[in-house]
Write a structure and sequence with these properties.
Length: 123
């Protein structure tokens, strides 16, 4: 495998969807835990969760990225968090250097266990 292999964002989303679906137990209950709280000093916003909850959060954030148009968003405080002290909206917005004509989701380099990176992109 090349150290800069491009992985389509759709493949990552599919994998996260399957991981998220596996968080449903045999009794059809979700096993994920996810909450939004202010830190004890009230200065930071904490998004906390177990493995399944954070996978669910990652999937939903990347769903917003996949939409790829300014204003695409997800209201996380409305999707059944275990606790939500502060409303949380994840919103797609172009950077100052982005143009409307170019792909709005580019790529991300992720290191693997050996330290090599894999590029995740939408193409």
């Amino acid at each position: 495998m090349s150290t800069n292999e491009r992985i389509p964002l759709a493949e990552v989303l599919d994998l996260l969807r399957r991981l998220d679906a596996s968080s449903i137990d045999p009794d059809n209950r979700a096993t994920h835990f996810l909450e939004v709280r202010r830190d004890p000093q009230g200065q930071d916003l904490w998004i906390s969760g177990n493995r399944e909850g954070l996978v669910h959060f990652a999937w939903r954030v990347l769903e917003v990225a996949q939409k790829g148009f300014p204003g695409a968003h997800e209201h996380f405080d409305e999707i059944g968090l275990d606790f939500c002290e502060v409303p949380l909206v994840v919103r797609f917005q172009l950077a100052d250097w982005d143009t409307q004509e170019q792909d709005t989701v580019t790529s991300v380099n992720l290191p693997n266990k050996s330290g090599a990176t894999r590029k995740i992109s939408d193409d």
